[in-house]
Amino acid sequence: MPPANLIDGRAIAELIHSETAQRIATLKARGIEPGLAFVRVGEDPASQVYVGMKERSSTRLGIRSTTQVLPTATSESELLQVIDRLNQDSQIHGILVQSPIPSHINSAAIYSAVSPGKDVDGFHPVNMGKLLLGDRSGFVPCTPAGIHELLVRAHVKIEGAEVTVLGRGNIVGKPMAALLLQKGRNANATVTLCHSQSRNITFHCQRADIIIAAMGVAEFVKEDMVKPGATVIDVGVNRVADPAAKGGTRLVGDVDFVNVQGKAGQITPNPGGVGPMTIAMLMANTVRAAERVTL
Ligand code: GUN
């Protein structure tokens, strides 16, 4: 088998950023500056990194961003007040409350409090419901939307494909499945959604034309689980012990990349695959939110 064809998420994300930048220029010519508010509760190290990356992308593209960092002990009602103020702020077009939220706060209540029109994360029940119904007027969660863009722009055939999604989380697995099974162009897939209680995940992977691994288990997808020529998308970010690495740990995906690469038709590198696309879709969703209220 020749080495698999890498799907370059960084390059595709840059392409989307350049399209988004054009739309921002159009808005700015009309005197409108898109505004995106980040809210981070607590000091989760990964969330600090992710919000930092999203801030830098906003600045680079000309989206005005603000970040509120709240202490871990913040109460649910305090966080709801912060969201309420952002909902009412006409300079803010998008609101993102970084997940995970501390466990004493009901995250469903928080995501339901964000105004659906500013919900650039696509986590509000209205936007989730629209996705399930095939109503394109809502916001689609950024990681599944980014994976969909990757597949389309890498010319992976989705229509009629057998897709196995690993992981049933609200941020990736469930919305990913909903997106790919829609009736319509670049959808119409037959989707199998596997999770921790699924029997024989290997069987479901082996017959898949596209595997999307988003269950958060380090290097779970092995070579023998992949059909020759299949497309493999790795969403995982897992920190594993590695005495040889700086700091004693390193990050790996949900795919055993080194061994799967030679078997897959196309595969995302990790990092450099899905991650940059999530940010690109967040920027695009924010600009869409600004266009909606102002055009
Ligand atoms: N945590 C991991 N992914 C995401 C995301 O897409 N949005 C938010 N808000 N938090 C996350």
Number of helices: 10
Q: Order of strands side by side in the largest beta sheet?
A: 1-11-8-7-5-6
Shape: globular
Which small compounds were modeled alongside the protein? guanine
Tell me the helix content: 40-55%
Q: Which spans of ≥5 residues are poorly predicted at pLDDT below 50?
A: none
Which CATH-level-2 architecture of the largest domain? 3-Layer(aba) Sandwich
Q: On the 0-100 scale, what is the average pLDDT?
A: 97
Q: Could you name the CATH topology of the largest domain?
A: Rossmann fold
The helix-and-strand class reads: alpha/beta
Cα distance spanning the termini = 51 Å
Number of domains: 2
Top CATH class of the largest domain:
Alpha Beta
Relative strand content: 15-25%
